[in-house]
Amino acid sequence: QVQLVESGGGLVKPGGSLTLSCAASGSVRTINAFGWYRQTPGNQREWVADITSGIRGSKRIANFGEGRFTISKDHAKNTVYLQMNSLKPEDTAVYSCQAMDFEAEKYYWGQGTQVTVSS
């Protein structure tokens, strides 16, 4: 089992920045990749970014986040980060972290953290 705890959400003005953290614990060595997703009420969960495990992770960012969002990880701390710059009101959502164990076909989720972009 893997446990994920997100933090770093909050209220920020348009144009501002936030860095979300996702701390993983448990059987982290089984995880192949981590991802960030977001969801607003009444809408489906939307993929934001992902990064593969290992010292050098392969990264992907959704088109809406290109140039504004950066995903990274601290291998020693088992923590994945999502740095978000130039935030827009449409970035308002609950952001959740996912850990993926492809071999076991298990996918773990954190509880989510609210990001609100408003003046």
How would you summarize this macromolecular structure in one to three sentences?
With 119 residues, this protein is an all-beta fold. Helix content is 0%, strand content 55%.
On the 0-100 scale, what is the average pLDDT? 95
Q: Largest beta sheet, briefly?
A: 7 strands, mixed
Helix content: under 10%
Outline type: globular
Number of helices: 0
Please provide the count of β strands. Answer: 11
SSE arrangement, N to C:
EEEEEEEEEEE
Strand content: over 45%
Q: What ranges have pLDDT less than 50 throughout 5 or more consecutive residues?
A: none
Amino- and carboxy-terminal Cα gap? 40 Å
Q: C-alpha Rg, in Å?
A: 14 Å
Would you kindly provide a written description of the structure presented here, covering whatever features stand out?
The model has no long low-confidence stretch (mean pLDDT about 95). The chain contains no helices and 11 strands. It has about 120 residues and is mainly beta. The chain is about 0% helix and about 55% strand. Strand 4 (about 35-40) and strand 5 form a beta hairpin. It has strands spanning about 1-5, 10, 20-25, 35-40, 45-50, 60, 70-75, 80-85, 95-100, 105-110, 115. The chain is globular, with a radius of gyration of 14 Å.
Task: Furnish the topology, listing elements before pairings.
Blueprint: E1 2-7, E2 10-12, E3 18-26, E4 33-39, E5 46-52, E6 59-61, E7 69-74, E8 79-84, E9 93-101, E10 106-109, E11 113-117
Parallel strand pairs: 2-11
Antiparallel strand pairs: 1-3, 3-8, 4-5, 4-9, 5-6, 7-8, 9-10, 9-11
